Amino acid sequence: MPTSTVENYLKAILSLSGDEKSTQRVSLGEIAERLSVTPGTVTTMMKHLDAKGWVGYEARRGVRLTAKGRRHASQVIRRHRLIERFLVDVVGLDWAAVHEEAEELEHAVSDRLLDRIDEMLGYPDRDPHGDPIPSADGAITAQALTPLADCPAGAFTVVQVLGDEPAFLEWLEQQRLRPGMSVRVQSRDEFAQTLTITAGDNKTKQAIGMSTASRLLVTPNE
Amino acid sequence: MPTSTVENYLKAILSLSGDEKSTQRVSLGEIAERLSVTPGTVTTMMKHLDAKGWVGYEARRGVRLTAKGRRHASQVIRRHRLIERFLVDVVGLDWAAVHEEAEELEHAVSDRLLDRIDEMLGYPDRDPHGDPIPSADGAITAQALTPLADCPAGAFTVVQVLGDEPAFLEWLEQQRLRPGMSVRVQSRDEFAQTLTITAGDNKTKQAIGMSTASRLLVTPNE
DNA sequence: CGAAACACTTTGATTAGTCAAGAAAATGCG
DNA sequence: CGCATTTTCTTGACTAATCAAAGTGTTTCG
Q1: Rounded distance, CA B156 to CA B149, Å?
Q2: What confidence score (pLDDT) does residue B1 get?
Q3: Angle at A33 between CA A30 and CA A34, to 5 degrees
Q4: Given an 8 Å threshold on Cβ–Cβ distance, is A112 in contact with B101?
Q5: Fewer beta carbons under 10 A from the terminal one: N or C of chain A?
Q6: C-alpha gyration radius of chain B
């Protein structure tokens, strides 16, 4: 049984190696940055994870998850996302505040409880931010989405939001850009690097910057 | 912020010092026994808790909780019991299995989430085993209950059950002796040390031993 | 090429929690 | 009362996780 510290390292490595597919090497510096620990701490931990068979580590060349490590990391992410979904749908907490809570709970919930939660929720496939929930065996099946920033004029539905800073999420909520809401691209201005949109049932147009628009992943309506 | 290990020590000390009232001294041996650690470990920890102001420790004379320690221990018990109530009432887990789960979760749930849970449940004052839930300020208000073993013939309602071994709880469930169910004492046999009762809506009489009957706390009906 | 900059590793130390085993009180039995 | 048993305490050692600071290998670029 890995400790919750180890689980956090695995999770960080998975998300830094491009989430799904690739057995991409991850540099220790990135891990240190992500977890706010010193590089030396990461070196020590990577040797340990290597010895335990969670990752493959080559000095000064980074780490990559082993199959075992990847599987376990996916489980942790599954827990995290199901818990977020539960806290929003069942408990009624604010979706912007739920990330931190799940960060703790993901290490404390038993498999029995997790299965029950999954069942109560009707086996959802995305969390409240639209991130896909890995299946029990660790596989992630997610349809391809387009950043709003790359979309032509037309009607779309927000599926996923990148980032979990509460303030940003609150703002999205206010703008009616939560996952599940629809958004219409009125026009694009390549020079100003903005999009003009109407969101949800709003009539009033608003401009959003390309960098923000690239954090909203959508599918075309119909 | 105490660690979860410290919280477990505080909880153990509170429950060993006679739960409410008394500033009774607790011997380190009892604590070691309760937590399945060696006496030496407890000694070390008690010095630490004393230094932090959670308990008063006198060598070879045991410890007693300070006001601060007692308050904090009550909070932890509050968490534990509210979580149990939540897991049974909202999530639908089996009341016999819920203790262990809560044992982990009590250290991971934020105050915000706990308040929300309390609200969802309608501010309950007992957990699924009938143990009183301390209020947010740590006070425990519980009416006096009588062990079934001390009751004359008549009708009663089970309020609280002493013990948390799943097998015992399953058995109670089966016998319809869960908290909230009513039970009728038909007769007592002092020599055999048994009671003859009918439980819940059952018609058939059954005998239970005094020692078991003393683990069922009841109030008279009406 | 070689020196500086950067990224990573090593070393030595710290804190929290724990155990095993031996020492010292306290208790209890004859 | 006095020795044996039990209980409690002390000591030394270990694991997990971490940091600071010094050291080493790589890359880059003037």
Answers
A1: 12
A2: 80
A3: 85
A4: yes
A5: N
A6: 19
Give the Cβ contact number of residue B114 at 10 Å: 18
Bases of strand C lying below 7 A from some protein CB: 7-12, 16-22, 25-26
Amino acid sitting at position B202: N
pTM metric for this prediction: 0.93
Alpha carbon of B129: minimum distance to chain A alpha carbons (Å): 19
Checking if the pLDDT of B20 tops 70, the result is: no
- Name residue B44's amino acid: T
Report CA Rg, chain A.
Answer: 19
How many C-beta atoms surround the C-beta of residue B82 within 10 A? 24
- The gap from C-alpha A189 to its chain's centroid, in whole angstroms, comes to 29
8 Å CB contact between B152 and B218: no
A101/B87 touch (CB, cutoff 8 Å), yes or no: no
Residues of A in contact with B92 (CB under 8 A): 116, 120
pLDDT tens, A97-145? 999 999 999 999 999 999 999 999 999 999 999 999 999 998 888 888 9
Question: A34 CB near a chain B CB, below 8 Å?
Answer: no
CA distance A11 to A163: 16
